[in-house]
Write a structure and sequence with these properties.
By secondary structure, the chain is an alpha/beta fold. The chain has 15 helices and 16 strands. The chain binds N-(iminomethyl)-L-glutamic acid.
């Protein structure tokens, strides 16, 4: 077993209230001792024995971000769609079709290397655990290929055959839903932990979405739903009814949605980079939190509605425009993301947790928002191993 000690940590966020002070369980002037196999070993006064050491020099360490909603495996570019939107064009679910065409045409080696580069970019932004969806092939072999590539990046790969009607099935929606629930699901299920559906006007209606989720559940997959992204609808309540781990987007939440979520195990995952990039209003996270809803923040990295893994910008929008305190936002992007993936091993730094942490080039974590858009991740540790070091950060 190989151990790593991060010494001279000014502030360590554990996300475990019993381990430290305040809502995030903060500890001061400690060393964090991590192990490749056994995860978080100890939080001690400086001087612990370890095989390798990093000197934090008074800077802060937080759990790595848990990005519970991404679409990292795709080809093609939709920058023009983004600039047109900024000039006033609306966001439409149908834009997904452009990426489907480019992704179908790409060879597997190219897709693998594009996805790996995006995963590395996310790591540089502090994301140490990630969920990755398929959804840009919409045919049996293509979705199976995307699910397999997603599973090379994470244990939390998601089958999203129900992202949009495949172009060949535009006039035969029920046949496409049957394919998604049948042959396509069978081809994908071995690679993934989750199934997802885009429940929205222009994508799949509530009955079609229920059929997709039921088939996924019968195949042993956990459930996730793209819900209430472009308007209020039935998606959030369907997610709760079906026992989904997460309802994602939640840009439009009615009182009935909040009532359903607050009495459930379904996390409301907000994706503010998408609301930024599609000129949607930001969701009122304060209202959801005050109603007792469990919340997460994720980036939704994808080519159409949010080509960014900048979790610190998601935090900034949450704090400035969604009514969250900084502490709530940081928790939502770490342990909140873990809850949205029904995991207890990430998003925190305490006994039994994986050794996933980030060292920030800052004395306190609030600098992530205070120094808007600055690259503050000095080092990322995943599974007890330093997997990224910013060469320009101070030693
Ligand atoms: O989560 N809403 C559906 N899927 C993605 C957008 C995908 C795209 O536009 O390519 C999302 O925003």
């Amino acid at each position: 077993m190989s151990t790593l000690a991060i010494d001279n940590i000014g502030v360590l966020i554990t996300n475990e209230q019993e381990l430290g002070d305040g809502p995030l369980g903060a500890r001061r002037n400690v060393s964090l001792v991590l192990d490749e196999r056994d995860g978080v070993l100890a939080i001690e006064p400086p001087g612990a024995i370890a095989d390798e050491r990093i000197d934090a020099g008074g800077r802060c360490v937080i759990p790595g971000f848990v990005d519970s909603h991404t679409h990292l495996v795709f080809a093609g570019d939709r920058a023009e769609e983004f600039t047109a939107r900024m000039a006033g064009a609306p966001y439409r679910a149908g834009g997904i079709a452009a990426t489907v065409e480019a992704t179908r045409a790409a060879d597997t080696a190219s897709l693998r290397s594009l996805a790996a580069a995006r995963r590395h970019a996310a790591l540089r932004a502090g994301v140490t655990h990630v969920e990755v969806k398929s959804g840009y092939a919409l045919d049996v072999d293509g979705e199976a290929r995307l699910c397999a590539l997603a599973s090379e990046l994470t244990e939390d790969a998601t089958y999203l055959g129900a992202h949009l009607l495949a172009p060949e099935y535009r006039d035969r929606p029920e046949e496409y839903v049957a394919l998604v629930c049948g042959e396509m699901l069978q081809a994908c299920r071995a690679s993934v932990r989750w199934i997802d559906v885009f429940c929205e006007e222009g994508a799949f209606d509530v009955e079609q979405s229920r059929a997709v989720l039921s088939a996924g559940r019968d195949a042993g997959l956990g459930l996730r739903v793209h819900a209430n992204q472009l308007r209020a609808g039935d998606g959030v309540r369907l997610a709760v009814e079906m026992g989904a781990a997460s309802a994602d987007h939640c840009t439009y939440l009615t009182d009935a949605d909040l009532d359903a979520l607050s009495g459930s195990d379904t996390v409301a995952t907000f994706l503010p980079l998408t609301d930024f990039s599609t000129r949607q209003p930001y969701p009122n996270a304060r209202r959801a939190i005050d109603a007792g809803v469990s919340v997460a923040l994720a980036t939704n990295t994808n080519p159409g509605s949010s080509y960014s893994s900048a979790m610190s910008l998601a935090l900034a929008l949450a704090v400035r425009d969604m009514g969250m305190t900084f502490e709530e936002a940081l928790a939502a992007a770490t342990i909140g993301g873990a809850r949205a993936l029904r995991r207890t091993d990430v998003g925190r730094l305490g006994p039994g947790a994986r050794a996933d942490a980030i060292l920030l080039d800052a004395p306190t974590p609030s600098h992530l928002v205070y120094r808007l858009g600055m690259p503050l991740v000095a080092a990322a540790v995943s599974g007890g191993v330093v997997v990224y070091r910013d060469p320009d950060a101070r030693d």
